[in-house]
Amino acid sequence: MSETRHSNAERKNGVYLAPWEQRFDKILDPFEEFIHRQTTSGLLLMGTAILALFLANSSFSETYLHILHTPLLVGVGSWSVEMSLHHWINDGLMALFFFVVGLELKREILVGELSKLRNAMLPIAAAVGGMVVPALIYYMINPHGDAANGWGIPMATDIAFAIGALALLANRIPRALITFLVALAIVDDLGAVLVIAVFYTETIAITPLLVAGLMFIILLAFNMSGIRKTLPYLLVAIALWYALLLSGIHPTLAGILGAMSVPAIPKYDPDRFSLHVKGLMKSFDKSHQQNQSIMTNHELSSVVQKLEYSIDSVGVPLQRLEHAWHMPVAYLVIPIFALANAGIPMSFSSLSETVTHPVMIGVSLGLILGKFIGITGISWLALKFGIAELPKDTRFTQIAGVSLLAGIGFTMSIFVAQLGFSHNDELLLMAKTGILAASLLAGIAGFIWLYVVSKPANQSTEHEK
């Protein structure tokens, strides 16, 4: 009733504005602009990591740990899954993170920087170097015992933090350098996923694994059958996640496999869509009657529904899902993961023991020195032998700066540490401490390096003239 009463008074130039809409827009528009900035997700991630450190080293530490270890049961009838909140975050919620990573990877392979071999060679080669060298450095320092299980920790790059730090220099660096880091980090994430699947799986249950394989085949069949609605994919992906959980393989891989099955080709091409919409718009104009509500004009309502279907048909489900899930993952999933995993109890009395611990040293040197040597060294060789070429308007010194930023391991490194040291709290604590210290140093060093070697865009343009 209130909408009917306000409809005429609040309609301006054919646009209906709800009574409070303009007031909310004044608040929401600046907020939306802020959250869409590339640096915002990195700042939020940093804030939650600091909050986790505070909680773990304050009078709230027992409450913090108690909440994380609270058992949560999800079940229907006799079927149920019970895990701690911490495990639900790491095994369940992070599947959404891997889903978005998988969507980004598929897009990059199909139409992005990884779609053309010549353009893809440098980030691929750099990513391989940035994974192998850190792992070798860690393993050289920790070749024996339980500590050796952490060799995969320094392999990963945290794309949110790294891109956030690079975005702060947006007016001094070429856009192609950000694209290079994104491509490198995506290949890096793929490598980390493969490492998790192959090397961080303790035991495998064959029957659930076969069921998981069947679920993946069904997802591919949906794709081949032209199904573009997301609900069928979601339901089967949940079954795939559960089967992987029972199989012993980390269930977050369901996110990657689910993303690989999402259709990436629209039903209509742009020309067909244009012709179809023009015809529908003629029907729309013909059916439209002045001052008549669309709710009472069935022909007009039918045309609008057809337009909606047409828009869905020209859109790509992969792109639509990536757009829909990017912000929830960046602003909810990853910060919640950081809040649950970055809480490291600090003891200044044992600081000397911590900084000299082999796991701490291995993780730190792997992320800082290993990433720098691996990415810069392999990139130099690839350019030297003509296998790859520098991104447009970039210099090799900027690639070296990016290799330092790639040492920000955080999210994925902590994730791998949780897997490698799940039964050894002391080594897990050392690994997390090394990750935080190395990520902080790598971020500062990379930022300063790129700030020094890069010029503001306006100065670069004037120099070229």
Characterise the protein shown here.
The chain is mainly α. The protein has 2 domains: about 65-200 and about 250-265 and about 315-460, Up-down Bundle (Na+/H+ antiporter like fold), CATH 1.20.1530.10; about 270-315, no CATH class. It is about 70% helix and about 5% strand. It contains 20 helices and 4 strands. A two-stranded antiparallel sheet has the order 1-2. Strands 3-4 form a two-stranded antiparallel sheet. A hairpin with a 2-residue loop joins strand 1 and strand 2. It starts with a helix and ends with a helix. The model is unreliable at about 460-465 (pLDDT under 50).
Task: State the CATH architecture of the largest domain.
Answer: Up-down Bundle
What is the percent of helical residues?
Answer: over 70%
Q: What is Rg?
A: 25 Å
Query: Beta-strand percentage?
Result: under 5%
- The count of DSSP E runs of length 2 or more, i.e. the number of strands, is 4
CATH class of the largest domain: Mainly Alpha
User: What is the number of helical segments per DSSP (H or I, 4+ residues)?
Assistant: 20
SSE string: HEEHHHEEHHHHHHHHHHHHHHHH
Average of the residue pLDDT scores: 84
Order of strands, widest sheet: 1-2
Number of structural domains: 2
Cα separation of the termini? 65 Å
